Amino acid sequence: MPDRSQAQPSTHSPGRMDLSPLVRQLDGRPKVAFKTFHRGAELSQEIWVAHLYGYRFERFDGGRLPGLAGPRLHLVVDTESTARQRAAWMRAPDLRPGVPAPVLWGANQPGRWPLLWTPPGRPPGYGPILPDGHELPQVAIPPWRTRLSPGNLLRLALWVAAVRVLGGLGVNRAGVAVGPSWWDLLTAAVVAGLLVGALVARRVRDQAIRRAEPGPDPGPGPGYQG
């Protein structure tokens, strides 16, 4: 590994985010499923730091019900000797001059932005230097993940039904119970339409999942040279 213990942060790096919750799970276990709602550059930062801690990207799962289960970033431990050495160095960085380092390491400077992320257990203000945004690993998220979610349609149907039930129980301004009326028929039709829409959206989504082939491990990105 080249000596990278002394360097200054790039002025073109993306903003810093707290990667510590992910790093605390990268303790050597064979597989990690990390709940994350990040996309784009933030997701790339998580894959980048996972590589430093000896893990490979396996897949990104948007989740069946994102609001409940949550999207998951799936990682697997890398058994290559270089990956194990890289992970061991990250857990106990040796910053002595001349000692090979797998990543550029630096310190926060007055007036310089973004601030460095500090790994757990390290002195604040010191940490690995994030590569430029275009040098981070890139992961393509299938477009269906950004379309109308069947989970959102289901939650909307439950909300509509709950509002009508509360109305039927007499929760209104006058305090008078609301009996069955054409509102009940309208509510039932709306809820039924939303449930059918949720089923259709789920079928379309599942078909897209089956067609989508899992992407290869993007690695650490072109900015990594270790």
Considering the chains and any ligands shown, give keywords for the structure:
226 residues, alpha+beta, 3-stranded antiparallel beta sheet, two-stranded antiparallel sheet, 5 helices, 5 strands
Task: Give an overview in words.
This protein has 226 residues and is an alpha+beta fold. 34% of the residues lie in helices and 11% in strands. It has five helices and five strands; from the N terminus they run αβαββαββαα. It has helices at residues 20-23, 40-52, 81-91, 150-168, 182-211; strands spanning 31-35, 55-61, 72-77, 105-107, 126-128. The strands form two sheets. The chain has a three-stranded antiparallel sheet, with helices on one face. α4 (150-168) runs antiparallel to α5. The radius of gyration is 24 Å and the shape is elongated.
Strand content: 5-15%
Task: Please count the helical segments.
Answer: 5
Give the beta-strand count: 5
- The SSE order reads HEHEEHEEHH
Please give the structural blueprint.
Layout: H1 20-23, E1 31-35, H2 40-52, E2 55-61, E3 72-77, H3 81-91, E4 105-107, E5 126-128, H4 150-168, H5 182-211
Antiparallel strand pairs: 1-3, 2-3, 4-5
Helix pairs in contact: 4-5
